[in-house]
Specification:
GO molecular function, one term: DNA-binding transcription factor activity
CATH topology of the largest domain: Chorismate lyase
Strand content: 25-35%
Number of helices: 7
Largest sheet: 6 strands, antiparallel
InterPro entries: Bact_HTH_transcr_reg (IPR050679), Chorismate_lyase_/UTRA_dom_sf (IPR028978), Tscrpt_reg_HTH_GntR (IPR000524), UTRA (IPR011663), WH-like_DNA-bd_sf (IPR036388), WH_DNA-bd_sf (IPR036390)
Radius of gyration: 20 Å
Order of helices and strands: HHHEEHEHEEHEHEE
Distance between the termini: 29 Å
Keywords: DNA-binding, Transcription, Transcription regulation
Pfam families: GntR (PF00392), UTRA (PF07702)
CATH architecture of the largest domain: 3-Layer(aba) Sandwich
Length: 238
Amino acid sequence: MPNRNIAKDSKHATLLEALAELSVNLKPHTQLPSERALSEEYGVSRMTLRRAIDVLQSRGYIYTVPSKGLFVSEPRMVRTSDVTSLSEVLRHRGNNPTTKLHLADRIHANDEVAKALGIRKGEWVYRIEQSFFDADIAMATETAYVPADLAPGLLEQDLAKSLSAILSDHYEKPIRRVQYRVRSVIPEEKFRERLQISPGAPTLEFHAVGITSKERSVFLVVSYKRGDKYDLIYQLEV
C-alpha cells in the first residue's frame, strides 16, 4: 500500500475515501491490515481511524470479527459508474459476472441521441444493447450509442469490456468525465423482462454521456438498474 499524506483539515473525509476504495478492490472477507498499521500508513490518529471505521461499517463496506480484526464485507449493493463496466466491478468483488448481448447494430440517431452526442439527427451511430448478471441475478440492462465516425469497426471489439476502455485503447478517445442524469422510472416491458422485475419494482434510469478532453461527446449510455441492488452516494464539496 502506498503512503499517503493526508491534509489535517480533511483527514476524515480523505481517509473514508481511501479505505472505501481499498475495500472495494478486495474480495469479500479479505482481512484488512490492523488498526495500528492503517493509522501509520495513512498518517492519522487511532481516534480518526476508528471514526472512519465506524462510518464504513455502517455503510456496509467492512465488518469486525472480535479478537481477529477488520474484514471486507460481502457487498449488499453495487456502487459503480458507467466509466467502469459493471462486470469489472463485480469481478473485483470476487463475484461471477456475466453479460448477455441483445443486439449490436448501426442506426440513424434520433433527436434524443443526436442532442446528447452533439451530432445531427440522422447521422450514423452504433447501438449496443446488453444486460449484466451476477450469477443468475440480473443487475442492469443498458443501451449504448457511439458516433460511427469516431469508432469505425467498434462492433468487432469485445463488447463485454468497458466501453470507455475500448474507446481509449483502440480509438485514442480517453474519457475525461462523464455527465450523469439519474431518475426513478418504470421502464418499458422489454427492459423489465431483462431485469426480471415486476412492473412496480423500483428502477433507476441512468443517462451517462462520456466526454473527452477535447469536449467531444463520444458515447451515450442509457441504463436501467434494479433499485433493490444499488446504493447512490453523493458527496458535495464546497
